[in-house]
Amino acid sequence: MNIVTVCGMGMGTSLILKMNMDDILKKNGIKGEVEACDLGSLVGKVADLVVTTYELKSQIEDKGYNTVYVKNVIDKKAIEEKVMEAINNLNK
Q1: Nearest-angstrom CA–CA distance, 48 and 34
Q2: Res 44: pLDDT
Q3: What beta strand segments (E) does the chain contain?
């Protein structure tokens, strides 16, 4: 599974989300690669799932990715709930 975490500049929020995603995948026994990037670098990336914040929704929603939008990047429990729901939907 390829997951891309995205923020505006690719240095803060996306790195926090990447660390959270690495932990969530490990906890749930899911093999995958997580990459952090900036918004401009997202185009052309192959990703099963994109994880980002609601602030970027208008700039990402039309790109065709399966995307999880989070409100709080440090609320790992809320992120895990949304991400696991999305992963389970992908595996159906």
Answers
A1: 10
A2: 86
A3: 2-7, 33-38, 49-53, 67-70
Beta-bridge partners for 4: 35, 50
**Torsion, CA 73, CA 13, CA 23, CA 1, rounded to 10:** 110
Bridge partners for 3 per DSSP: 34, 49
Residue 83's pLDDT is 96
pLDDT beneath 50: ranges in the chain: none
* Contact between residue 69 and residue 79 where contact means Cβ atoms under 8 Å apart: no
Q: What does the alpha-carbon distance between residue 10 and residue 53 come to, in Å, rounded to a whole number? A: 12
pLDDT for the residue numbered 11:
73
* pTM given for the model: 0.93
**91 φψ region: left (φ > 0), alpha (ψ -120 to 50), beta (else):** alpha
